[in-house]
Amino acid sequence: MTGRLVEAADAMRAHMARVGTVIAALHASGRRSRDRSGVRLPPRGPESTSRDPAGAPSAPEQAAGTPAPDREGDPSPEREEAARLDRESSFRETRTALAELFEPDRDSLRLPPERLAALFLAMVFSSTRRPEGAPEPSADLVDVFVHGALS
Asked: Quick one: where's region Disordered (predicted)?
């Protein structure tokens, strides 16, 4: 079981690192169209205020903090709800796949595989970003998860 869990933790961490790279690139681009409630956010960065050579705004700009009309590329409430459901479904599928890793050892587990999968996910997700630097090696996390902190 330990080897299966180390492999799963490494795969999840690699996936989260790739997602983080995409988010960082979007952040660096200055793209911030709306907050979670759908309110338009002010643009960021020096290129965020486009002005013509005379110094006037080049196009009508919507004031920050006011709801923006839907347009191509902006998430509508329906699209945001669909995305939320997709995230929940994806998380459920991940948790189910992890529970299957515990299944061969079900008879010796203290908790059901589904509960252990949820706890394992929480541990792996919380260990990926540490203020003091690199995350703990997956093998160490799995060792403590499987064998506990006591010797």
From this structure: 27-92
Q: Is the dihedral of CA 26, 28, 34, 35 positive or negative?
A: positive
Provide the CA 71 distance to its chain's centre, in angstroms. Answer: 25
- What tokens were used for 113? 């595989």
Sorted by where each begins, the domain ranges of the chain are 1-34+76-151
Q: Is the CB of residue 31 less than 8 Å from the CB of residue 47?
A: no
C-alpha 87: how far from chain center:
9
pLDDT per residue as tens digits for the range 8-49: 999 999 888 888 888 888 878 876 565 566 666 665 555 544
Among all chains, which residue has been given the structure tokens 């997709």?
Answer: 86
Q: Which residues of the chain have pLDDT under 50?
A: 48-53, 55-62, 64-72
Token couple for 42: 């002010």
Q: Is the sign of the CA dihedral 74, 78, 81, 85 positive or negative?
A: negative
